[in-house]
Each structure stands twice: as C-alpha cells, then as structure tokens.
Amino acid sequence: MNFLAHTLFADNDDLIVVGQYCGDFVRGGALDQFPAGIREGIRRHRRIDTFTDQHPVNLRARNYFEKPLRRFAGIITDVVYDHYLARNWSLYSDQSLESHAAFVYAALQKHKALMPADLQRFSEVVVERNMLVAYREFSAVEMALGRLANRSSRFQVLATAADVTRSLDEPLAACFAEFVPDLIEHVASIIEQ
Known about the structure:
By secondary structure, this protein is mostly helical. Helix 2 packs across helix 3 and helix 9 runs antiparallel to helix 10. The longest helix is centred in the C-terminal third of the chain and has 24 residues.
C-alpha cells in the first residue's frame, strides 16, 4: 500500500500520520529520536508493508506483470492500490477524501521539523499537488510512476509501467477489492496489540 492507504490507518492521530510517511524514509530500528506517535506510525507502516508484500492476493497481482516490470510489481501495485482506494474512498471511511487529505497535509506541515530532510521536500510536493485527492484519477498513478522512473537508472523501466498498469486495470482492481478487507482486519489486530 502507498501513502494514502497508510494514512487511512493512522487513527486520525497527526503524529501517527507523520510516522506512516516516515516509514519509507527512515531506515533501521533506532527510532528513539522520534516522539512516541511517530515511532508507532513507522512501526505500523512496516507491519502493513510486510503483510501486504506477503499476502497471496498481492503475489497473484504481481504475476500479472511480465519481466522486466515484474521485478517492480510490488511498487506498481502499491501505487495503483492508492488509486483504487481514492476512487472508492467512501467504502472505507466515513470522512470525505478531501477532509482526510486536509488533515494529513496539516499534520505534515505541523510536524515538518521532525521529518527527515528528503521527506520534508517530498511532503511539500504532496501538499502542493494535493496528491492524496489527485489519486482519484489515473493520471496521478502515471505521475507517481514517472517520478519513480526518474529516480535512478535502475528504475527507468517504470517509465512503461503506467500503460501496462492501465491495461491490467480490471484484474488489479479485483485484487485490491479482495485484499483490502484482509488488510483492515490485520491493521485492527496490530492496533490492539
């Protein structure tokens, strides 16, 4: 799951939201430099990623991609799953997507000084482009995959990923719909721990 999905599971706690974002920007287990809420968000992010990466439905979804994209299929499905979540947001939240996004953006701005420098820069882009709401449109998937493709020569193959992903819309959307109830149940169980 990507950023929108992670923030869905932040319990409307602004520090957990920031921690959920930090999950992709902070390496290792030494998290003592962060407040408790951010530490919890990072841990939750990592548990969600582990569950997502190992889930049989997502393993099946990744197999829809042929080489060389299959190597990056986990990244691609994370991005497109945010699109499906945004498109169907009202099925998973009582709050509007716009209200949720505004809360997330406020949390990122409020706690910017606590985030790693590269996340501070990325969060500015997220807010400026209203990325969480933008994910309703497939163009946000194209933009995200294009941004990843430009990161390094290793990721350049992702420049073709948007067209392939669009062609797989029906089976990938079905995988998302099958997976999300399991994810919701899993997150509920880790929050209770």
